[in-house]
Each structure stands twice: as structure tokens, then as C-alpha cells.
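Session log. Operator J.P. requested a structure for one protein chain; no other inputs attached. Running the standard single-chain path with C-alpha cell output.
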Amino acid sequence: RSQRFVPQAAHARARGERAGQRGCPCGMAASDSAPKRKPLKLDLGNITEKNIGQLKKLNAVTFPVVYHDPYYETLLKKPLKYCRLGYYADVLVGAICCRLEERAQGGVALYMMTLSVLQAYQRRTLASQLMQWAIDSAQSEGDDIRVMYLHVQTSNETALSFYKSFGFEVTDKIEGYYKKIDPPDCYVLCKPLNGYPLEGSAPPAPAGAEGDC
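Structure written below.
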């Protein structure tokens, strides 16, 4: 698929409009909780070696942290079943990346690493469409996913409201999680899936930050 990429200058990095992922307090570069504009319908596409550069550009203009080449090299080495690019009119406008993690107590956790939408396309339900795709996939692909989880900077009320609207609950607080961002603390948000209770669905202990933060 060929596509244009919206120039970086067109997108301010409004910190309060993004939500958390490991290594970044703002894994959602969108604010679907704000007043909506006319909804747009996303077309979803797979991430491949040929278009990984587009994801790099998207992350560069939507996140306040730097994802270096090793992050993308590692991403391509793992199954990308729960990662998608979002297009509108053949323009890459958003993306979601999640990974599977084994749980010591059985089953699998789905960890949301990043969720982003270009600022010019925010408040058009695009982040919600990406989020709903991930949740629906996690409940229909037969991977024994028992919980979906993510990290959100404690000061990011917009992100917390967004994720809570999808049924996520704050289950833990990690102090000093981020190294270069204030406040450095994050909440862990979890959503039980496939009929499993939230109790006992805690994700694995964090393995440290990804990205330059």
C-alpha cells in the first residue's frame, strides 16, 4: 500500500493528549474523550518490513520520547498479530502495537505498547477504533488471553478517562517508572478478557522502560 505521510510540522506534541506505555507516559497520542468532530472510518493494515519506516515517522511526531532502531528491529522479530496501522484516505494517521506475554499463573497477557493518532485527526474516534480492534481481536483469536494491560503516567487524566471508558481499571502504581519525565510515576491499568476475573489477572512485573525517556 502506498501512502502519504502528514508532515511533522502539522502536529503539535500536546503532552496532555496522550496515554501511557512502557517507556513512555503517553502511548495514546489522541484525545477521544474531548468533544468529538465528525467521525472518520479507519482502514487497518499490517506492519511489515516495507512500511516499518512509516511507523517510525508516526511515533516520532506523536510521542515525546525517542524509539531507536533496536525497538523496531525487535518488533519485527516478534509476532505482529496484535499490531495494526490505521489509514484514512490512504494516509497513515494512527497505529496500535500490542504484544503477548506469558503469565506465571497461566494464560497470556496482552500488553499495549503504543497507541497513537496524529493530532490533525484526533477527536474523530480513531483511537477508539484502534482500541476496540485490539480488544475484539484479543477475545476472538484463541490465544488464551486473560488480561490486557498498559501503563499510564499518573498525571495523565485524559488517558485514564479514555481507558476506563473501555473497562480498564487501575490495579497498581509504580513509582519512578519513567527516568526522564515528570512525574516519573505510572499507573498499571488492566482489563480482564474472555470471562476471566480481574482478581488474579495481574500482569508480569515490568521489565524496564523502552524508549528514551
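Operator note: The longest strand covers residues 91-102.
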